[in-house]
Write a structure and sequence with these properties.
The protein is mainly alpha-helical and about 180 residues long. It is built from seven helices and three strands, in the order αααααβββαα. The chain has helices spanning about 1-10, 20-35, 40-45, 55-80, 85-90, 145-165, 165-180; strands spanning about 105-110, 120-130, 135-140. Helix 2 (about 20-35) packs antiparallel against helix 4 and helix 3 (about 40-45) packs across helix 4 (about 55-80). Zinc ion binds near residues 97 and 131. It holds the Pfam family Rpr2.
Amino acid sequence: MAKVKGQKTKGPQGVQNRHIYNRASYLYQAATYFASQPHDAVAKSSSASVAAPNTNGQNATQNLSRQMISSMRAVSLKAQIRQSPALKRTICKFCDTLLIEGQTCNSTVENDSKGGRKPWADLLTIRCKTCGNAKRYPVNAPRQKRRSLRNQEKDESKMDVTSDSPADGQALETLSTKRDS
Ligand SMILES: [Zn+2]
């Protein structure tokens, strides 16, 4: 019940494209499942050889997981829905690998300021082991709101100013006098 209430505040008709959110969520969960699968399980079922099954199995589950993430992003793009920043941080945007700390990615804190003297310059660097690309996030800075929300706030403050100013009232008066005459 609480969920429905929360969604209703966003829009009058509840959540649009609910089935697409469901599908994206399902794909993400499937990708997490495949990424967390022990490599031996798939290797045993897929091949009987003993020498190479480990790497083959690993590649198979990794590729499946990547394929799921790729589909999820395709679905989101097609429907123009936005995934949460927290979710996007768990995906490598260069190769669609699900980033699991220690398994598919390495996280370090970097500080490029002179001698590391500026504590607010700390950057969390997440490097993907599959493709070697890294994403950097500021550690201490608060996240900026997205542009559409910032613009909305600006517009609202402008609207308040104009409605309070006497210019609008005058314009209305002149209009009404014109109608009368
Ligand atoms: Zn990657």
